[in-house]
Amino acid sequence: MKIKPKLFFYLFVASGILGSVEEIKPSRAILESNVGEMEVEMSKRQDGTWLLTSILDGGSIVKREESEIFELSDNQIRPIKYDFNQRILFRRYKASADFSWDENEVSYVENKNKGIVSLKENVLGPSTASLQLRLDFRNFGEENIPEEISYLVLWRGSLKNRTYTINKEKESVETPFGNFMAYKVSRKFDEGSDRSQILWLAPELDYSVIKIYDKNDREVEIKIKKFEEVG
């Protein structure tokens, strides 16, 4: 995780309260979108690791399944295994990654391509960057939320920096689950790119993502419909 230099003070202040933040709880959320309903679940496994899954069912148009097993220690996610399957009409895409921290490398498969990438400290899996964002928001507290935050993420066979800018003024967001005050977090893309992704995190729901706007070939808007702690 990288933060603007002027915001190191916020991290220093936040580090004094890390021990007081309760461990995140297993949860399940249902989200609705203009392409189908999505179910997202985070559960703790018997061996102490965590499993994050998401399933989007858009009928005959789109089907998407994603899962990631990870360890969680001192607020930092360490990915172990990632799997992804997607079908949009007749186009299919499949990917997986196995993280070997002892050997300091990750082996990946992207459709017919495969390879090995050297790991770096605090690398996140493709689906856990937004979860790490949520964990960091919980630890910052509302008084110490930064203006920008970055993560190193495995994405399609290479390690990439994923940077988010944060609007520190909360805004009202209407969802099927209710209205919430939330922080707007925008992912940065290369200049000139038409790509866009915006997340809204609600402190009232333990900084869960309650709305997503994503533009990548087509526009998708996702809003939370149901949220519950399951453990």
| Overall tally of structural domains | 1
- Give the helices and strands as they follow along the chain: EHEEEEEEEEHEEEEEE
**Order of strands side by side in the largest beta sheet?**
1-10-11-12-13-14-15-2-3-4-5-6-7-8-9
Instruction: Give the distance, in angstroms, between the N- and C-terminal Cα atoms.
Output: 28 Å
Number of helices: 2
Average pLDDT, all residues: 88
Could you describe the largest sheet, including whether it forms a barrel?
15 strands, antiparallel
Inertia-based shape: globular
Any idea what the radius of gyration is?
A: 17 Å
Portion in strands: over 45%
Helix coverage percent: under 10%
What's the total count of β strands? Answer: 15
Question: Which structural class matches the secondary elements?
Answer: mainly beta
The parts where pLDDT drops under 50 for at least 5 residues are 2-20
